[in-house]
Design brief:
The chain is an alpha/beta fold. It folds into two domains: 136 residues, Nucleotidyltransferase, domain 5, CATH 3.30.420; 178 residues, 2-Layer Sandwich (Nucleotidyltransferase, domain 5). The strands form three sheets. A five-stranded mixed beta sheet has the order 3-2-1-4-7. Strands 10-9-8-11-12 form a five-stranded mixed beta sheet, sandwiched between helices. Helix 3 packs across helix 11. The two termini are 25 Å apart. The mean pLDDT is 96.
């Protein structure tokens, strides 16, 4: 993060994903002292998961040069529906066998440290707010674009959790009322049903099934699996359909972003996650962001459009564990 000397107190951030668990030791200024990760293997059950967490935390603390005595608290970020005050995972789709799991209590007992639970998108948003691309502002909307669409909202150090731990679930806002696309949640017309990686793949397959001309037809015929990366590569090579599909995804994100801007009126809106097409480092990534901005300009009130920064996030895959540690710092930093 920076070259400054580490500053106590210290926190451990744990970011549990469907594929990997990431663990980092973070100081009071959000600087990462050490980082490690390992496979989640959620199908092996919660006890195996807890053993993995303990192993990774032990390793991260050892590599940081600290001891458990130096750690003030643990921040735990997880996907899926949850009861945040109760510290319970309810029905985490990406963590089979972890249903109705009192994860905060179990981790707290395992590590013998005060522990908080936070939604993974909320944690990542707080990471960007604390030390990332929004570190200089008071309010943030953070979109994570991947298999689904996550969102976190931060206002003056307050993480918007809601009364039922479902605050910020903005991937499920409705952007199409009539004949909307179906989403696996049982809803129709949601943003996630149009703009997620899953939706991009589905829209691409539908277009190819309709016989639309594209180099992707040859790729599929040769056995290639449609992925956002394959679509992005085709777009970068000038494929009209692939480019249209990605720009339509940006349009949908612009619609969703405008809705939240008119609700929250934030300083900054950031876009992160796996499906950001190279971000500002590629022509496609720059065009994707510009298409979002163009849609917002078309739909938003002039004042918020002119004064709200729309950009890519900066912490990448580190945002989750850094933000989880930051949320632990929010609760336990003054104790």
């Amino acid at each position: 993060m920076n070259d400054a000397q580490p500053e106590a107190p210290y926190y451990v951030g744990i970011d549990i994903g469907g594929t990997n668990i990431k663990v980092g030791v973070v100081d009071n200024n959000g600087k990462t002292l050490s980082f490690t990760s390992g496979p989640t293997n959620a199908e092996n059950g919660t006890e195996a998961g807890l053993k993995t967490i303990k192993k990774l935390v032990d390793q991260a603390i050892e590599e940081s040069g600290l001891t458990y005595n130096d750690i003030t608290a643990i921040g735990l970020a997880s996907p899926g529906t949850m009861d945040i005050p109760a510290g319970m995972l309810l029905d985490p789709t990406n963590l089979p066998t972890w249903n109705d799991f009192p994860i905060r209590e179990k981790v707290e007992k395992l590590l013998q440290k005060p522990t908080i639970l936070q939604n993974d998108a909320n944690a990542a948003a707080y990471g960007e707010f604390w030390v990332g691309a929004a570190h200089h502002v008071n309010s943030l909307i953070f979109w994570t674009l991947g298999t689904g669409i996550g969102c976190g909202i931060i206002i003056h150090d307050l993480v918007i959790e809601g009364e039922n731990s479902h605050g910020g679930e903005c991937g499920h806002i409705i952007i199409e009322m009539d004949d909307g696309r179906y989403h696996g949640s049982g809803q129709y017309g949601t943003l996630e049903a149009y703009a997620s990686a899953t939706a991009l793949i589905a829209r691409c397959q539908e277009a190819l099934d309709e016989g639309k001309a594209s180099s992707l037809q040859l790729e599929v015929a040769s056995g290639e699996k449609i992925t956002p990366l394959l679509i992005a590569q085709a777009a970068e090579e000038g494929d009209v359909l692939a480019n249209e599909l990605i720009m339509d995804t940006a349009k949908y994100m612009g619609v969703g972003t405008t809705t939240l801007m008119h609700t929250i009126d934030p300083n900054v809106v950031l876009f992160g996650g796996a499906m950001t097409f190279g971000r500002n480092e590629t022509d496609l990534g720059r065009r994707f962001l510009q298409r979002i901005k163009d849609e917002v300009k078309l739909r938003a009130f002039p004042v918020p459009y002119e004064n709200t920064v729309l950009d890519y996030a900066s912490l990448g895959g580190d945002a989750g564990y850094i933000g989880a540690a930051g949320c632990a710092r929010l609760k336990y930093g003054n104790q």
